[in-house]
Design a protein that fits this description.
The complex is a heterodimer. Helix content of chain A is 42%, strand content 21%. By secondary structure, chain A is of the alpha/beta class. Chain A has two domains: 198 residues, Rossmann fold (3-Layer(aba) Sandwich); 150 residues, Rossmann fold (3-Layer(aba) Sandwich). In chain A, strand 9, helix 11 and strand 10 form a beta-alpha-beta unit. By secondary structure, chain B is mainly alpha-helical. Chain B has one domain. A two-stranded antiparallel sheet of chain B has the order 1-2. In chain B, a hairpin with a 2-residue loop joins strand 1 and strand 2. Classes of the chains: A alpha/beta, B mainly alpha. Chains A and B meet through helix 2, strand 7, helix 8, helix 9 and helix 11 of A and helix 1, helix 3, strand 2, helix 8 and helix 9 of B.
Chain lengths: 400, 282
């Protein structure tokens, strides 16, 4: 009896959920942005950054009377950074009219959403996914990437690795699409620079204990270590690596490792770690300075973190595409995005028509002290035409 | 290799302290407490906050006391009123509690990851067979061993320990013998929660603190409890140590299968020895 009650409630609940999306008649007028992102789990911190940046951009746009007159509305759903959950949540958002999707963390999620975008009549703008596949062999006309892909990071790593004195390197990366991608490009960069890879380790996503890997790296005799871990994984690893003395013994660099957020959590542990910096609040462009100032005013003096800056850039692109298209229809926005040039916090940038990858400059640096505060310090700026390698030809882009 | 075995002991030790709390609660109440992971998480956060002011020992004590109170409240307010309900109701309610506690932690401590420093008295490392090994990890092993020892002495020698063991074996007969299981239960659930709090605090310098950290450890603790035999204390100890080793050595030697091995172990135990490694009774 009790169980049947429960079942009835469950059915009632799902029925209500199905009825709800009917939505108000003004749906055409509002620019509805769906945010399927990680609100719980290993990447919860990164999801929180994405949401904060989107909320900031939306508040800013609405304060100016909307985007080309369209009021902007967002809805966020939790994906736990899991591809199958992301697909479900994105579908839910699209069915409710939130058809411009963005803010998703893991590449696997973007790859899961891609093939279904046309069916949902939605578009997806990646601001954080890095796997080359998104704009490579898995590219679709309704998927765009305004952040750096792995190939752009690799283009920065190759010359940098050549300048390092360490000959033996180990790789520790998360065992997900992005980590595998990053590991592979580092192996190639090592080959070009005649460096030995003495250990190549892919740790399970969301690991608690990194001690076994740390031990492996120590006994491999590596002089340098390349790390592709993010969020909770990065913090767990760095904490435990420090404890085992690995950070002091081996030269450590990585991708998504030198971020403001990791600096904030790890404090002194993060000092002296090198890596690719995709965005930093210290970037010296007028647009970025204005953005950072506005951000600080809104968030009590906090500076925007890496994923916040990158996601804000994505929102700038979406808004400018809506203005150009004079429409909030996903397909019109997509047409305006393809091949378009946009004014962003990183300057004027173009979204390449061939594979929908943004042509961006990239940065390299380390975590050090500046102005009495630990923060990512940029030592090298690689211009967009060098950092962005030409399309590989694996993407066969269809018509919109 | 030896260092890898020590690492396995550290992880197994942590798992043991979490799972033995689950076993205590299951043994007496016959319920699977889904909120146990969030008690672990709360312990880590309470420990984190207190450690900043009162040092490591203060943090350990505070986490144990606060969580014991939470546990007592959990038993009086939720588990006792629900004891005559279908077990699925208790499972659902404790699962709901897990979500509430996660939101609570997010509200109090925020969404960002936090990190507790290693207590200064245990920082640094010692040389073990030529390999340096962090002192703090040895402390974790020692705490787990002390908990195991203390708990088995308490279960063997104290009156409540006797009741708990009796009740784990046969709750109905124990109640018929005149044991007031409700009163015993408050103490036992409080103790189980306090152990979750202690394990949370000692793992805080090793793991990133986040409101959802409890769910990471909860699943592996369930595996430990099932492999060890539901309600079996010695079983939980053996299973935690075995899983700690299998997990660590698996990651090193068969990385592609490492996350699967504990689950395979559980499936194997359920098929060939459903009462668990040490479970002669259920």
């Amino acid at each position: 009896m009790r169980r049947s009650h429960l079942l009835a409630f469950g059915l009632l609940g799902s029925a209500a959920a199905l009825v709800a999306p009917a939505g108000p008649a003004t749906a055409q007028e509002t620019l509805k942005i769906g945010v399927p992102t990680a609100l719980t789990g290993t990447y919860a911190g990164l999801g929180a950054e994405a949401v904060r940046a989107i909320e900031f951009a939306v508040a800013e746009a609405n304060a100016k009377g909307g985007v080309a007159g369209h009021k902007v509305e967002i809805k966020t759903l939790d994906t736990e950074a899991k591809p199958e959950v992301a697909r479900k949540q994105a579908e839910k958002l699209a069915l409710e009219g939130y058809k411009i999707l963005t803010g998703t963390i893991a590449s696997g999620e973007g790859l899961a959403m891609g093939p279904l975008l046309a069916r949902w009549d939605a578009i997806y703008v990646s601001t954080i996914n890095k796997s080359d596949k998104l704009t490579g062999d898995s590219c679709v006309p309704r998927m765009f990437r305004t952040n750096h892909q792995d190939a752009q990071d690799a283009a920065v790593v190759r010359p940098w690795l050549g300048s390092r004195k360490e000959g033996k390197w180990a790789i520790l990366a998360a065992d997900i699409a992005w980590g595998r991608d990053s590991g592979k490009s580092f192996v190639e960069a090592a080959k070009v620079n005649k460096k030995d890879i003495v250990a190549e380790i892919y740790s399970p996503f969301g690991s608690n204990d990194y001690a076994p890997f740390i031990q492996q790296i120590k006994s491999s005799g590596a002089e340098g270590l390349w790390v592709a871990l993010a969020g909770r994984d990065a913090i767990n690893f760095a904490t435990q690596a420090k404890e085992f003395g690995l950070l002091d013994k081996v030269f450590v660099a990585g991708v998504s490792f030198v971020t403001d957020n990791n600096v904030k959590t790890l404090g002194a542990t993060s000092k002296g770690i090198w890596g690719i910096i995709n965005y930093s609040s210290t970037l010296d462009t007028p647009a970025n300075k204005a953005f950072v100032e506005a951000w600080k005013t809104k968030y009590n003096g906090d500076e925007p973190a890496s994923f916040e800056g990158e996601t804000y850039l994505g929102m700038q692109v979406i808004f400018q595409a809506v203005e150009k298209a004079k429409s909030v229809k996903p397909v019109d926005v997509a047409k305006a995005m393809r091949g378009g040039t946009f004014d962003t916090v990183l300057g004027k940038v173009t979204l390449r028509a061939e594979d929908h990858q943004m042509v961006l400059p990239n940065y390299f640096g380390y975590i050090g002290e500046r102005g009495g505060k630990l923060r990512p310090i940029i030592t090298e700026t690689i211009p967009a035409n060098v950092a962005t390698t030409p399309p590989t030809g694996t993407c066969k882009m269809g018509e919109l | 290799m030896l260092v890898q075995i020590l690492n396995g002991l550290v992880y197994g030790g942590l798992l043991y302290i979490v799972s033995v709390g689950l076993v205590l609660i299951f043994g007496l109440r016959r319920i699977v407490n889904f909120a146990h992971g969030s008690l672990f998480m709360l312990g880590a956060y309470v420990g984190f906050s207190v450690a900043a002011m009162g040092g490591f020992w203060g943090a350990l004590l505070a986490a144990a006391i606060v969580l014991a109170l939470v546990g007592a409240l959990l038993d009086i307010a939720i588990l006792q009123p629900l004891q005559r309900e279908d077990p699925i109701v208790t499972v659902l309610v404790t699962f709901g509690l897990l979500l509430i506690l996660e939101d609570f932690a997010q509200f109090v401590w925020g969404k960002d990851f936090l990190k507790s420093p290693v207590p200064t008295m245990f920082s640094g490392s010692v040389l073990i067979f030529g390999e340096s090994f962090p002192v703090y990890r040895l402390v974790v092993i020692a705490v787990a061993a002390l908990v195991a020892l203390g708990l088995s002495v308490w279960l063997r020698l104290s009156k409540i320990g006797l009741y708990v063991r009796a009740s784990s074996a046969d709750p109905l007969t124990t109640a018929m013998q005149g044991v007031n299981t409700d009163r015993v239960s408050v103490i036992v659930v409080a103790l189980g929660a306090a152990l979750a709090g202690i394990s949370g605090t000692i793992s805080a310098p090793l793991l990133a603190l986040s409101p959802s950290m409890g769910s990471y450890i909860l699943i592996e603790s369930f595996i430990v409890v099932v492999v060890g035999g539901l309600g079996s204390f010695a079983g939980a100890f053996i299973a935690a140590i075995v899983i700690g080793q299998v997990h660590n050595l698996g990651l090193v030697y068969v990385p592609w299968a490492a996350t699967m091995i504990p689950f395979l172990l559980m499936v194997g135990v359920l098929i060939w020895r459903p009462t668990g490694i040490a479970g002669s009774h259920v």
